[in-house]
Design the sequence.
């Protein structure tokens, strides 16, 4: 969501390019918002010495007000943010839908995932603006291995699904959060 370099769009492009031929069954969906998927793909393909205008394993969806169909199609949320963020709404939404996340270890993002996903640490160079450094081949392989495991190892995947649902319900459930907030206000007023 928001296919911009700071959100990790260049990393997603690298992973999609790597998996397009070896694992065409692993599909990516990119939701454009403030960024451009075509620009990200052009940047990565140029830097890799290839001309790629489209990937057969990537579906590009325009900005939407309704993410339900997207989450309905999703097995894993890939959110490799590179800029510091206090939280990530899509991570919360994914966990509430029982979708494990693969996220970067930056800012408050790991706290949004809890045990409901895989937290990866990327080299510092990737976290520096303008966020245009690319992964090495070894780093691409490590991340594709994580994705492949979540697609192929059903036991591991189900463990992450249950953890995402449990964490989402305990930390991100709107009814529970509203009740907690009301109780705090009642204590303050009372």
Sequence:
């Amino acid at each position: 969501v928001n296919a911009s370099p700071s959100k990790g769009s260049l990393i997603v492009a690298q992973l999609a390019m790597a998996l397009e031929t070896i694992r065409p069954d692993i599909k990516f969906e990119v939701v454009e918002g403030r960024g451009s998927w075509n620009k990200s793909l052009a940047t990565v393909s140029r830097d890799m010495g290839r001309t790629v205008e489209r990937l057969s394993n990537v579906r590009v969806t325009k900005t939407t007000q309704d993410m339900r169909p997207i989450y309905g199609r999703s097995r894993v949320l890939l959110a490799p943010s590179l800029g510091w963020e206090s939280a990530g709404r899509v991570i919360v939404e994914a966990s509430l839908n029982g979708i494990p996340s693969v996220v970067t270890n930056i800012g408050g993002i790991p706290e949004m995932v809890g045990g409901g996903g895989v937290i990866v640490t990327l080299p510092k160079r990737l976290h520096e603006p303008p966020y245009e450094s690319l992964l090495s081949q070894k780093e691409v392989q490590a991340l594709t291995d994580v994705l492949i495991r979540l697609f192929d190892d059903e036991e591991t995947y189900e463990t992450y699904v249950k953890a995402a649902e449990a964490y989402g319900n305990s930390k991100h459930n709107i009814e529970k959060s509203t009740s907690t907030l009301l109780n705090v206000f009642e204590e303050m007023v009372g």
User: Anything to note?
Assistant: The mean pLDDT is 94. Residues 154-172 form the longest helix (19 residues). The first strand starts at residue 28 and ends at 31. Strands lie at 28-31, 58-61, 77-79, 101-104, 117-120.
